[in-house]
Amino acid sequence: MTDVTLELVATGPEEIELIRNLYQFYAYETSDWEQEDVEVDGRFYIHDEHLRRYWDTPQWSANLVLVDGFIAGFMLIERSELPGIEAQELADLFILKRYRRRGFGRLLAREVLMNAEHAWLVRFYEQDEAAAAFWHSVLEGLPRTVKPISLDDEPELVNYLLPRVMH
Questions:
Q1: DSSP 165
Q2: Between 129-139 and 104-113, two packed helices, what is the crossing angle to 10 degrees?
Q3: First and final CA of the chain: distance in angstroms?
Q4: Which of 44, 22, 50 is nearest to 31 (CA)?
Q5: Residue 142 contacts residue 113 (beta carbons within 8 Å)
Q6: Less Cβ around it within 10 Å: N or C end of the chain?
Q7: How does pLDDT run across 26-39, given as a tens digit for each residue?
Q8: Residues of the domain holding 145
Q9: 1, part of any domain
C-alpha cells in the first residue's frame, strides 16, 4: 500500500444515487447465499426509506471508500436500535473487487473500530464465508476488548460488541 491514498469520505444526501448504485454490487455478491433475486427492473431491492436514514438519522452515515481518489467502495454506519445495545454498528462495508486483498477494507474497519469514544457492534452472517473470514481477521488482535454476544433478533448473525473505552 505504499504511495496509495486511502480515504473514508462522508457523503451527503445528494449522493444517495451513488450509494444506491454501489449497493447493487454488494447485493449481487451476497445474492447467492441470501437467495435474493432481482426485481422486474433488473435491480436488487433496496429499501429506500432505510437508505435515506443514513443522511436523516443522527449517528448514521454513508461513507465512500476512495483509493487514490477513485471510488473503491462504501461503508455504512448506523446507531444500533437493538434494545440494551448502546453502540454504533458498522452495518456494511463493501470494497470493489479491483481493490480487494490489498488490506484497504481491513485498515478502514480497524481504524473505525478503534474510535474508543463509541461502543461498536459488528454483525455478520457466518454463511457468508468471505465476510466471516474478513471480520474474524479484523477482530483478532484488535487492541481493544472484543466480546462475542448473543442477540435474538436474527439468530443467523454472529455478533461482537466492542465496549466503549472509559478514560
A1: P
A2: 50
A3: 33
A4: 44
A5: yes
A6: C
A7: 988 887 777 788 78
A8: 6-162
A9: no
